[in-house]
Amino acid sequence: MGKLSGIKVVDLSLFLPGPMLTVMMADQGAEVIKVEPAAGDPARHQAPFDTYGDAEHSVWFANLNRGKKSVVLDLKSEEGKAALRDLIADADVFVEGFRPGVMQRLGFDYDSVRAIKPDIVYCSISAFGQEGALAHHPAHDMAVQALAGFLSVNDGPDGTPVVPGAPSADLAAGLTALSAVLMALVGRERTGEGAYVDCAMFDSLLPWCAHTAGSAIAGGPSPVSRAQRSLGGAGFYQVYETSDGKHVVLGGREIKFARNLLGALDREDLIPLAEAPAGEQDELIAFLRETFATRTREEWVEWFADKDVAFSPVLDFREALDEPHIAERGLWVEADGGGRHIAPAIRFAGEDWQPGAVPNFGEDTE
To answer: Where in the chain are all domains bearing CATH 3.40.50.10540?
Structure first.
């Protein structure tokens, strides 16, 4: 029995933010009915594939849709609409991720769904929200990051933005939507009333710039990466290349770390620079670049083993997943019958977790 056992979710979302929201609910025991179009969730067709149980599935799809039921409905047909209304009749949560206006055209906007189930918690996830000048503008994660200002500081030393490694707008939306849905369910327990959640990827991402875009938030100029302590202007929050062409990072700017490292390197004279404003630490950064270039990544890992410094090697995903820490935390799990999953970040003490089965396309339609 998970924390959300007894909660029924009707999920029309595809790709990433919505399915991440609902898989986090399924992992905690919610009954999630994944309503797919005739072509299926596009994530089903994205390589690479692995064997989960008795079928091959996309690793992406499996990790975001385990434990759900798959129902295939044509929502442009009367039969499909009637079936969806039946599913909604006893649902607690309704999730959709279409562009604004689509659900109204299909006859399943919030007012229509609320007419079927008055206390429904209805969540719409979109790039820019249901209203406003950008509401109908097509966008995936990177375009949202670009328009929110984040891509401008996802740049290299020459100031050129690069494609981000993390889908920050998607992940912010998935987590924000989950929080909103759970808040609404808690509120419903007290008032008996449902709620409508208009979750925009743009709105979800924007608050996460508070620690870097303070000058712009206050009405001033935009931050420039090399002059920001968390974006490349500080020696102790920086990426360094090692002698074997790999990389390490210093990831903590507290002065105690500077004292510990620079003391061990016999360069206490540079400690004041570690406290200088971002953008004024070029001499310190140059010294650290020269120093890290003298040994391999693994030699530095060994050297730092007894040092109290926020240091890490830069690992690729293969190396990261093979790290002992992953196994110790149980974060990479093989399901019964095969197929690997990343374990949910939300787990509760004393409760065992196993990944639910990955639904075959349409297997629960009847």
So the answer is: 8-207+332-342
